[in-house]
Amino acid sequence: MNIHEYQTKELLRGYGVPVPEGRVAHNVDNAATVADELGGERWVVKAQIHAGGRGKGGGVKVASSLDEVRHFADQMIGSHLVTPQTGPEGRLVQRVLVEQASNIRQEYYLGLVIDRATQRITVIASASGGMNIEEVAKTDPDRVIREAIDPAVGLMSFQCRKIAANIGLQGRQIGEAAKLMKALYRCFRDKDALLAEINPLAEVEDGSLIALDAKMSFDGNALYRRPQITELRDFDEEDPKEVEATGHGLNYIALDGNVGCIVNGAGLAMATMDAISFHNGKPANFLDVGGGASPEKVGNAFRIVLQDPNVKIILVNIFAGINRCDWIAEGLVQAMRDQQIDVPIVVRLAGTNVEKGGPILAESGFPFIMADNLDDAATKVMATLEASA
Ligand code: GDP
Ligand code: MN
């Protein structure tokens, strides 16, 4: 789960990470008031959306007067901001962060991620801040420094000093950076984060370091024990189909192909997507109905998959253990009766009560396309798509 920059900064401030003075504003008057209260002569107005690259898209502006603050806030709030990370449709900006502007001397990168290979929280740092770190890693890998953290002892001072020196910090900055890294690590660990990224970590006029941009995302499976983080969730930034699916106990992830997939179990979902890809198709989603799926749950699965206008065919692939093929079949027939379903449906059933499930579909009178196994199912999906193209 991702949160907004202003929320991340609020959280990090509590841990002792230096961040600019600032507050969120939901309208133009509010933005001007915040700037006035902050004082100073220059402010930054920053569009709050769950996507980076805002600087490139016009979502980060430095204002030199309260009128300019109003002007930029007015431009941003209510607009759809397009950045290299949003896709062409952009994201609706509902609020801006207004901060005191900093005079930047140098931009660094500092991040924490979970490295799955070493199974450790890992610090990533670079002297090439302000830019896309993936890009730096590709073009200039020597400029990206990695340091794994041993969970038994946490982030050690010597590691912090090493990282700081390696990205070119000097003198008292080394100690400052070490304090900042430790604070970031404590927050990351305490809150079950998956990613924390400060980009840029800026060196300002007087040589001190400050987190000018901050992004964090958190492990959805740990939210049950992190109520403070759960409260920061912004459903407007998430795919409404995914939100609805969660409410129905379904696991749905939107993708960009045209084959809707309804399956049971995450492993089978992966195998199904692989089979479709192997036959040169593209899955439109990943939908896992889980174990013991009732006919109602199957109906909800159809409703959610069909909300995606790109879906041209649906593949139902069930390998029933705890599930029952007769229940799934009843759910399918019920969905055909209740819903406006005008895309073809390929069904592969196997496992518990398959001898009852098949006849239910066959006797329903609906034109289900039956498949014997996963490969057969993927083949029939592609053949049907081709025939209707
Ligand atoms: P992102 O593009 O979404 O990653 O947004 P950032 O918060 O990283 O802002 C993009 C760029 O705007 C930064 O790399 C800085 O160069 C610039 N910027 C952000 N805050 C300030 C500030 O307080 N003063 C100045 N002069 N530039 C800023
Ligand atoms: Mn940034």
| Overall pLDDT metric | 95
Low-confidence stretches: none
Care to count the β-strands? 18
Bound molecules: guanosine-5'-diphosphate, manganese (II) ion
**Radius of gyration using CA atoms only:** 25 Å
Gap between N and C termini: 38 Å
Structural class: alpha+beta
Number of helices: 14
- Characterize the largest beta sheet: strand count, sense, and whether it forms a barrel: 6 strands, antiparallel
Description:
- The protein has 389 residues and is α+β, with helices and mostly antiparallel strands.
- The chain has helices spanning 5-15, 28-38, 54-57, 66-76, 133-139, 157-166, 172-190, 227-230, 240-247, 266-278, 295-306, 325-338, 354-363, 374-388, and strands spanning 22-25, 43-47, 60-63, 80-81, 91-92, 96-100, 104-115, 120-126, 144-148, 193-204, 209-211, 214-218, 251-254, 259-263, 285-288, 313-320, 345-351, 369-371.
- The longest helix is centred in the middle third of the chain and has 19 residues, at 172-190.
- The mean pLDDT is 95.
- The chain binds guanosine-5'-diphosphate and manganese (II) ion.
- Residues 52, 199, 213 line the site of manganese (II) ion.
